Amino acid sequence: MATITVDGKEIEIGDNERLNVIQAADRAGVSIPFYCWHPGLSVVASCRMCLVETGTKNKETGEISMVPKLVPACQTPAKDGTVVVTNSPKVKANQNFVQEGILLDHPVDCPICDQAGECWLQDYYFEFGHQERRADIHPFTSKRRELGPHVSLFADRCVMCSRCVRFTREVSGEGELMVIDRGSHAEIDVFPGFPIDNKMSGNVNDICPVGALCSTDFLYEQRVWFLEAQNSVCTKCSTGCATQMHVNQNQLYRIQPRFNPNANDWWMCDAGRYENQFVTAPERLDGVVIRRNNAWEPLDWPHAIREVYNHVADVALNHGGSHLAVVLSPFLSCEEAYLLASYAVSILSDVTLVVGKIPVVGHDEKFKSGFTIRAEKCPNRRGVEEIVKHFGKQPLDWDGMLAKIATGEIKGAYVTGGYGDPWIDDAEAAKFEHLESLVVQDILPSPLARRAKLVLPGVTAFEKDGSYVNHAGLIQSASWGLRPHGGAHVDGQTFSDLLGRRGIYNAADVLKELAAKVPFFARCTDGVPPAGLNLVTGQEKHPLTTELGTVTHPTPTFRSEGSRMLEVETPTR
Amino acid sequence: MQPDDKSIKWVREPQLGIAGRMYLTPLFDGLATTAKHFFSTVKGDGFTRQFPEERPEFGNPLIYRGVHRLNKDDEGRVKCVACFLCATACPAHCIDIVGTEAPWKDREKYPQSFVIDELRCIFCGMCEEACPVDAIELTSLFDLTGASREEMIFDKEKLLSVYDMTVEAEPMKSKSMAEAAGQPAGKGH
Hints:
By secondary structure, chain A is an alpha+beta fold.
């Protein structure tokens, strides 16, 4: 164990932790301000905000020898015997001058700046800034400039921390961004004709500590202090990035990554961030419909539950359980898959359980930092597979089921969907045409839903609580942020009603039940921590709460808590 | 505590005299007040006004909190930059703004829509306090009436028309207040 002294307080850190002084001080509850340092990027020590006094303590004599100059805390490794002073007049004066220097040519257009409310300049100004502007310089102002499809640059607000430049070089690896010109003329820019359009470009908006880079999609949409954050999990591919959805008045405004060293580190891809139009698509299914006399008739939910039983159980009881296929979509959460599988085997124990269609698009795309966008475009294949394996007598995959439908072995099906993109074409859906009964539960109309006898509306991952198992076996829990669309019910509620359970579906309780029943999920007995649990290897990193939330913004409470890197707690509703 | 406790001091109401028992004194007291006001009104220096023919005068219209207006800049464009600070400060949640990129070169953001529900408004003036560009102001129009609820929901055009209507009588407050304080306009901050 290495002993570090921060402002007279001694803390111990592990031998192999390789922390810098900012991180070590944060463990001691002391926050050192910084702009350019980011735990996921290389160190440039260019902003000079984190300068502190350091020294070494001789273990034997206890004598402390200090370095005469201030040194950047981000660049100084915390070693055994390191002594850090962050509150001396010298350090304070430096922070004050750096802050003043940055604000000299900052336009201070906070009222129209999207970053206002989560701006590091604003926060630090109250802690470290001068009370008034001493120089009467009018900063130049420039209009918004688009650097890429998702990235807008306001050059005059930039503090030249170069985080975005380092991101494109070290994480996404495309290197579109650069610093042009020198000194006070320095500016972030791209080469003409080479916009920043890589698949992770949205992250530069997050890591920008000020309002220089703003998300074009979120621009002027909403002020950030109106937004309420909910922890979520991205469902766009099997990486399962930990995310946060920002919601106000039941409207989804933006999605940002949440630090999870087991899945996505600090990043997420643009597809997960921006391609969520299906949530508010006008064609979303919003009520139960049943086909009667070749026409669709609306149905209320209590009747719908009975009709599902009529449609599904008739096939099983007339022909035998194996002639009924219950398809568990890889977009269902583990809890929902468990409830649906339990329902299926409660009709007859040999009902055929099928893992829904796994959408695969292209190849895995690995970026320079190791961040991967997976070809498998669904969040929960592994979880559903394990549940199907546990409950099903003869588990099938989607193609296996299609073959059995073609031979006439399967006479009825209950298909769950939840896919955000079109997932089934007319030719494939036509294979279901001669089934005796077909119940489809989906979020969007599809060729399959048009052929169904009964269509139940489901919800997206933004509207339901649930846990998902990613490609590596990491289970993560997501909470709901939006109310179900129209007259749709949360899928778990529908399955719970089908099982004849009373009351409101509670994902946490169902997960406990699942953990007790299915050995694969045994580790989830006490719930799932924010960084997830790896159900395959049984090992995962559990970042300290102080290490979370560093990517986007410190919590609004950081000032009172004394640390800028505290976990961004999900506000209680 | 018992009724015969020694620390309890028993008191009796004073007995009324004969005039008091007939309620004569208070009756004449009341009549005297009525008569005083009656004669002072007849004399013409009283408090009664013939509203609406006679408009009340305000001590200082600059600090009166009546109907809102949205100020215009020198070029006749809406001054508001859609920063939402008024909506944030509003305790009645009666302001609804939709911001978007401004169509002008020298401005970045402006309100595409700016709606105040005058029925919900409590005329506290917090919006005016919060505004960083002195775009929203409360005028001294106080007799706001409407025939329907919809009529009382003021959109951007209507708020700008209130400005046109009142700007002659009440110039923009930031300027007027600065002049009143003996400072050149625009150096308030």
